[in-house]
Specification:
Layout: H1 2-22, H2 24-28, H3 37-56, H4 65-72, H5 75-99, H6 102-105
């Protein structure tokens, strides 16, 4: 899942770079392009992107990697991650219980 996301991100990043390098100078040209009005088109497009990002991207700040697994992965990986977290929690609890035995407290 992560590799696919990076691939999509890289594709659109390179497409934006191509656009910026080849299309922007033509659009801003006052003779063959639309001149300063191109900046309005560009600004409206950026506003549309910002709105889509705000409403469609899930919030990931402040979440653990396990919680992100529950958001983005398929059911099988979610189940495995939940089992791993439970095993780790139970393992930590048993280790802490072994450290302080009732015999040592008395």
């Amino acid at each position: 899942m992560r590799a696919r996301g990076i691939t999509v991100f890289q594709f659109f990043g390179k497409a934006a770079q191509f656009f910026g390098t080849n299309v922007n100078p033509v659009g801003l040209d006052p003779v063959s392009g639309i001149g300063w009005k191109f900046l309005i088109v560009y600004s409206v497009w950026i506003l549309i992107e910002a709105i889509l990002i705000y409403f469609l991207w899930p919030e990931t700040s402040g979440r653990t990697l396990e919680e992100l697994t529950f958001l983005f992965e398929d059911e099988e990986r979610v189940r495995k991650a939940a089992e791993a977290v439970e095993n780790e929690l139970h393992h930590d609890r048993s280790v802490s219980e072994e450290k302080v035995s009732p015999k040592e407290v008395v």
